[in-house]
Amino acid sequence: MKTQLLCAMCATLFTAATAASAQTVAITGGTVYTVSGAPIQNGTVLIRDGKIVAVGASVTVPSDAQRIDATGKIVTPGFIDASTQLGLVEISAEPSTRDQNARGTDGVAAAFRSWDGLNSESVNWAPARNEGVTSAVVAPSGGLIGGQASVVDLVDGSTTEMIRRAPVAMVAQVNNPRGAGTGARGELLGKLRTLIEDVKFYQAHRSDYDRAASRNLSAPRADLEAMIPVVEGKLPLVIDADRVDDIRGALRLAKEYNLKIMIAGGAEAWLAADELAAAQVPVIAGAMNNIPTSFETLNQRQENVGILSKAGVQVAIIGNNGDGDEESFNVRNVKYEAGNAVAYGMSHDAALRAVTLAPAEMFGVADHVGSLQVGRDANVVVWSGDPFEFSTRVEHVLIHGKESMSPSRQDLLTKRYMTLPPDYTKP
Questions:
Q1: What is the DSSP string of 159-191?
Q2: Which of 52, 213, 267, 425 is least surrounded by CB atoms within 10 angstroms?
Q3: What is the DSSP letter of 377?
């Protein structure tokens, strides 16, 4: 009898838990930009248990569904910023809060897994999330090989709950010789070649290496192991390069070793647009700057991403392009980068894709996020108008089907100083 009673209680609890997790949400009446297809006027996005189960103009909404009225509004996938240091850098001026730059060995930190030091309690998650960014690529920096990047969802939870996929790329740079422990620009690609050759040698002579019977290699075992998927073409190598000659050097390196690469920064990438398109190499870049910030960016222009897109290059627009004007707390500005790209020649559809589906495809998570399709995770944003307009407000942010907007530190400070402080001089 006790066993039967216990089983009945377990069944009841299981049913209740399943019902609670299987919440149904219907976003109705808005213009739905699926990104993977044509916009749907007066569309509905139906969500159940954190997944999109229907999208269209004639979707039947269950009577028990929670409704979000999006009439007159815009519905898009959550935005994805393809290059951030969210959760790694809290305050750029305070060294103790910067965890993006591993020391490594002689400029090589390939074994550095950036997500191992991710700060799930960072105050920078909320402002990004509240402005429509639901996923981000968290990438290390520094040295020749900075380490491994991950894709995270901006859920309010633990690090384990946030990580969508890791690793998604290895990060390198050919912009800064001194930062990589070299004295001249030409050394950077040479040092990369040496590392790649050493990884190939290590693969072929593991037993000799284990017996200390192999030649000296340019990196420790852990870094060599971490580079194997890159050398095998299984893990993308994101190369930070601005000068067109450095970009072309990266293209030659990729062709020589059959690497899968992406260009990040890419200030002068428009000068090599046709070459990048022919090699099917994506570019990760912003669209705010048109003034050179160094001798590597003399040909920088705001039309850059528009020219690349029209040439057939896959582009991801980012909201913190590394020039110091947009740090972790302003990742939310990716929408303005995209709007600026439209103002300077990129089509609206291409710009929307560049902050949603394009980065999802580039980093291998397009089967989960980046578009509004059946079976995708319900990372959805409802906007009061065009997402790229300054006056547009974010009205709803759903991550995994759950409302995810919460007061940011900026919101709390605004509320605190809405009224003047009390006059302590009065008795």
A1: HHHHEEEEEEEEEEESS-TGGGT-SSHHHHHHH
A2: 425
A3: B
Options 2.30.40.10, 3.40.50.450, 3.40.980.10, 3.40.1710.10; CATH of 20-78+370-406: 2.30.40.10
Radius of gyration from C-alpha coordinates of the chain: 24
Q: At what angle do helices 244-257 and 185-204 cross, to 10 degrees?
A: 20
Q: Taking the chain, what is the end-to-end CA distance rounded to the nearest angstrom?
A: 72
DSSP 391: T
Give the length of the chain: 427
Q: Which of 409, 351, 309 is nearest to 79 (CA)?
A: 351
Chain mean position to CA 413: 28
- 178: CB partners within 8 A, 6+ apart: none
Domain locations along the chain: 20-78+370-406, 80-368
Topology match between the domains 20-78+370-406 and 80-368: no
Judge whether 228 and 251 are in contact, CB under 8 Å.
Answer: no
Residue with the two structure tokens 């990266």: 250
Mean pLDDT, each 10-residue run in order, the chain (427 residues): 42 38 87 97 97 96 96 98 91 77 85 93 93 96 93 94 97 86 85 96 90 89 97 97 96 97 96 98 92 87 96 91 56 93 97 98 98 98 97 97 88 80 64
Q: What is the dihedral angle through the alpha carbons of 192, 195, 196, 201, rounded to the nearest 10 degrees?
A: 160
CATH 3.20.20.140 fits 80-368, yes or no: yes
DSSP SS3 for 147: strand
Q: Are 289 and 302 in contact (CB under 8 A)?
A: yes
Kindly give, in sequence order, each residue whose CB lies less than 8 Å from that of residue 99, ignoring residues fewer than 6 positions away. Answer: 88, 89, 114, 117, 119
Q: Show the tokens assigned to 205.
A: 């002579």
